[in-house]
Specification:
This protein folds into 2 domains: 133 residues, Aspartate Aminotransferase, domain 1 (Alpha-Beta Complex), CATH 3.90.1150.10; 244 residues, Aspartate Aminotransferase, domain 2 (3-Layer(aba) Sandwich), CATH 3.40.640.10. The chain has 13 helices and 13 strands. The protein has 391 residues and is α/β, with parallel strands linked by helices. Bound molecules: pyridoxal-5'-phosphate. The site of pyridoxal-5'-phosphate has 13 residues, from helix 5. Pyridoxal-5'-phosphate binds next to helix 5.
Length: 391
């Protein structure tokens, strides 16, 4: 008998493909110099942390009272402020007790899945998706079911989605702006999804939740506020994180918002609190709670990401790469010039270009380019992209 859990051993002894590439890049930089590596592997924001966030961190840091435990679901005043900010943006009618503070979107997702699912339940996810969803869903005892996208626009394939929903489906996870495609779901997509889920919930006699994973909500290039999912579908949980929009992924802070109109809303919130407790995700970092409450209305400077996107997109298209036009987040999804994206990624590595194959995102044959790097890195990487296209 093993003295450890075999499944956990499997997860811990194999790095994700993204991490694997990132570590390779570090090694290559140590051997050949940083200038020889164009690391497009990791979604680490390159825009500096906003001044208001730094000021708030400094101001609160010296307050000795701030380093104590808060309530398990987060400080009441913090939740009240964040709810007020969301209500003023979206008119969502959230209260302090609609929110559960977490250490980032990863925790928000793990808690939400655990709160909604019993063993054997299903979580349906339209591809392309953040690969960790599968890990989080399975850790909650659920079955992960992926459904294809429409390759013309990277919106979900609704016929496939509708037929993937069974009596065991507890939730559908959406992520817009999307990692890895950079695509923003249209209002029509949300409305169609809502009507499918209303029909299926009615048919199976229980609510099917939308879990809306939104760490890129504010990184959109249209300059417009994206629709707030719970305003279009009552049984919604929003999983949010400030990792990307405030460039603080290492600080681990986010929340879960339970729609005030959700069926059995108080019971769902209690299950969120219970799942947080069971997973040990109580009392999100207290200093950071105060900082994000104070900075709830601070927005990222998306101009640097826009500049990177415009250059990369136009240059790669001109070279003949088939690119999905990104409207948000900081990823460009590109069709692999050869059928096997893994093979292309290996060829790219030889040129110092680190591109993540789309397979683990549920989109084989594509490559993800995380363009949250310096503009200069993009400029210097273009000859390598050109050389690869001519193979
Ligand atoms: N969801 C998506 C789509 C992501 O891209 C990421 C991180 O890259 C996460 C969740 C996890 O975010 P966090 O750092 O807030 O845990």
């Amino acid at each position: 008998m093993q003295n450890y859990n075999e499944e956990m051993y499997g997860l811990g002894s194999r790095r994700s493909e993204i991490r694997e590439l990132f570590e390779y890049g570090r090694q290559l930089a140590a051997e050949k110099g940083a200038d020889a590596v164009f690391d497009f592997s990791l979604g680490n924001p390159s825009v500096p942390v906003p001044d208001a966030v730094i000021a708030s961190l400094k101001a609160h840091h010296d307050n000795p009272g701030i380093h104590a435990y808060t309530s398990a679901q987060g400080d009441f005043e913090v939740r009240k402020k964040i709810a007020a900010s969301l209500n003023s943006r979206f008119g969502a009618g959230l209260g302090a007790d609609s929110l559960y503070m977490t250490c980032g979107a990863a925790a928000s997702l793990c808690i939400s899945f655990k709160a909604l699912c019993n063993p054997g339940d299903e979580i349906v996810v339209p591809a392309p998706f953040f690969p960790e969803y599968k890990v989080f869903a399975e850790a909650a005892g659920a079955r992960f079911v992926s459904v294809p996208f429409n390759p013309a626009d990277f919106q979900p394939d609704f016929t496939a989605l509708a037929s993937a929903i069974t009596p065991a489906t507890k939730a559908v996870v959406i992520n817009s702006p999307n990692n890895p495609s950079g695509v923003v779901y249209t209002l029509e997509t949300l409305r169609t999804l809502a009507s499918i889920l209303e029909e299926k919930s009615e048919l199976y006699g229980h609510p099917i939740f939308i879990v809306s994973d939104e760490p890129y909500r504010e990184i959109v290039y249209s300059g417009e506020e994206l629709p707030f999912v719970m305003n279009y579908y009552r049984n919604t949980l929003v999983c949010y994180s400030w990792s990307k929009c405030l460039s603080i992924p290492g600080e681990r802070i986010g929340y879960i918002a339970v729609s005030p109109r959700a069926e059995d809303e108080r019971a769902v919130y209690a299950a969120i609190c219970g799942a947080g407790r069971a997973l040990g995700y109580v009392c999100a970092p207290s200093l950071l709670q105060r900082v994000v409450a104070e900075c709830a209305d601070v927005r990222p400077d998306v101009d640097a990401y826009r500049r990177n996107r415009d250059l990369l997109y136009s240059e790669l298209c001109a070279m003949g790469y088939e690119c999905i036009p990104p409207d948000g987040a900081f990823y460009l999804f590109v069709k692999s010039p050869i059928a096997d994206a893994h093979e292309f990624s290996e060829l790219a590595k030889k040129e110092g270009l680190l591109l993540v194959p789309g397979d683990s995102f549920g989109a084989p044959g594509y490559l993800r380019i995380a363009y949250c790097v310096s503009y200069d890195t993009i400029v210097r990487s273009l000859p390598a992209f050109k050389k690869l296209k001519s193979f």
